Amino acid sequence: MPRKPKRKAPASPARHDTSPEPYPCHSSPSSAQCLAVRDALLAFHGFPEEFAPFRRLRLGGRSPNCDPLPQPLSPTVLDGLVITLLSQNTTDAISRRAFASLKATFPSWDQVVDEEGKRLEDAIRCGGLAATKAARIRAMLRDVRERRGNICLEYLRELSVDEVKKELSRFKGIGPKTVACVLMFYLQKDDFPVDTHVLRITKAMGWVPATASREKAYIHLNNKIPDDLKFDLNCLFVTHGKLCQSCTKKVGSDKSKSSNAACPLAGYCCIGEKLQKQ
């Protein structure tokens, strides 16, 4: 069983999104709530193995206990952006397979831009929506080459979060969730993407209103969650949303009450349900 982490107060405040706060009267979550939920999920699941390499990159090749670990190879920003684009409307496993096929077919990004046939589309077909994704990848790569002289996005590492958002949002098909994932996983920035799992769980806990859209939830949660908890909480929410059957059901329904007993978020979701009814 994973060892329960030591509790400590969050060291850094939340980074406020530059967009207007959509729910100024909604006080949740507090820093203490974020820490408690992070600790509960970490004790229950351990840290998800699929996200461990990204965590080691953020920790500079060390474990949370400061023990040295093998430094994982850092993907390029462009690789990360393409992987994230390919993951739209499919699973991570399938998108990784599509990316591996793309790289095997095209050793360089310039070849992707210069190729005029359907080899790119064929290479990523296993990931779904091949025609749409191929067109967006090629257009993005062409734009980068025309503006920068070469196909590379490593310069984004030197920019602020808002500057990265501005740069990436110029590309068709790169929305707020994709940008947030690139910021958090591939640029090691403090950001909090909101996918279907995160939105469902945070609504259930009352961290965002029940009627919140993904876009407004993203702004609110980034304003509220302390920077030093965003990465762990996000990875744990995604993992918990995939694994916990009770969290896939409507909170408070008769069908979910018995299955909620083993869920570490059951108490938080009951509180959230009461808050949503007020």
TrEMBL record:
According to its UniProt entry, the protein's GO biological process terms are: base-excision repair
A single MF term (Gene Ontology) = catalytic activity, acting on DNA
Which CDD domains has this protein been placed in?
ENDO3c
Write out the ranges of the annotated region (Disordered): 1-28
| Gene3D superfamilies hit by this protein | Helix-hairpin-Helix base-excision DNA repair enzymes (C-terminal) (1.10.1670.10), Hypothetical protein, domain 2 (1.10.340.30)
Segments forming domain HhH-GPD: 86-243
- Spell out the Pfam families in the cross-references: HhH-GPD
Among SUPFAM superfamilies, the record links this protein to:
DNA-glycosylase
| Source organism, top-level taxon | Eukaryota
Which PANTHER family would you find in this protein's record? HYPOTHETICAL BASE EXCISION DNA REPAIR PROTEIN (EUROFUNG), PTHR47203
Q: What is this protein called?
A: HhH-GPD domain-containing protein
Species of origin reads Miscanthus lutarioriparius
